[in-house]
C-alpha cells in the first residue's frame, strides 16, 4: 500500500507554453469562437423567423446549431482563459463537469446527426409520405431521445469517475478535460471506468454511425434509380450539407477518441477540429450549400432594410 495526498486542481497544459505563441493562439481562437457564436445564432434566428423553413429538416438543423453553441462553449472559454493565464489550473470538480458536458453534447450531436440522416432518407425514398411520417410528435420525440440518451450515457460514466482518487501527477496534456485524459491521473483502479467508456462510446458513436450508413445506403440506391441527371443532382443536393457535417464530425471525433491520450500534435489537431472548428463550420456549410437557407437570409435582410427606409 502507498500513501497518496489528494489534489484539488489539475493543470491543463494547453496548446503551447511559448507566451508569444499563446497570444497568437488566443486571438485566433477568440475569432473562431466569435464566428461560431454569430454563425449559429444567425442560423437559429433565420430558421425561427422564416416560415418557409418550418419543416422537420430545419427543425433538426436548429437543434444542431444550438448543440454547436453548447459544445464549443464548454471548452473554448476555458481554453482562452488558460492561454492568457500563468497557472492554467482547473478545479477537479470543474474538470469533471467539463468532461461530462463534452461527452453529453458530443453524444447528443451524434444521435442528432443519425436522426437527420433518417429524415433525409424518408424525404428522398418516400417523398409522398414525408409529411405524414416525419410529423411534429416524432421529430420532437427523436430530439428529446437524443438528449436523454446522451446525457444518461455521460452521467453513468462521470459518476464512476467521481469516485476515483486523483493524486500525484496533476498535469493533463490537453486543452480541455475529457474522461480519457483523467484516467491516467488516478491512483485508483480505472479498468472498470475504461471498459465502460469504451463500451458506451462504441455503442453510442458507432451505433449512430451505423444508422447513418444504412440511411445513406438507401438514399444512394434511390438516387441511382432516378433516370434523369437533374433529378439525381436535386436529390443529392438535399443531403450534401448533412453528409459534409457527418464527415467532419465523425472523422475528427473517432480519430480523437481512438488515439491514445498523449498530448501529441496529431491528437490535439483532431480534438480542435472536433470541438472548436466543426461548430464554426456547420453554419457556413448549411448556409453556403443550401439554397433555401440562402433564400431565407435574403428575405430577412431585405425585410430588415426595407423597415429602416
Specify the biggest β-sheet.
3 strands, mixed
Strand composition percent: under 5%
Structural class: mainly alpha
Low-confidence stretches: 1-5
Radius of gyration: 21 Å
Helix content: over 70%
What is the CA–CA distance across the termini? Answer: 78 Å
Q: In total, how many beta strands?
A: 3
Question: What is the average per-residue confidence, as pLDDT, rounded to a whole number?
Answer: 84
Q: Quick one: overall form?
A: globular
Task: Summarize the structure in words.
The chain is mainly α. Helices cover 76% and strands 3% of the residues. The protein contains 10 helices and 3 strands; from the N terminus they run βααβαααβααααα. The protein has helices spanning 19-49, 56-83, 92-125, 130-133, 136-162, 179-182, 191-224, 229-258, 265-288, 291-308, and strands at 9-12, 89-91, 171-172. It has a 3-stranded mixed sheet. Helix 2 (56-83) packs antiparallel against helix 3, helix 3 (92-125) runs antiparallel to helix 5 (136-162) and helix 3 (92-125) packs antiparallel against helix 8 (229-258). The longest helix has 34 residues, at 92-125. Mean pLDDT is 84; it is low at 1-5.
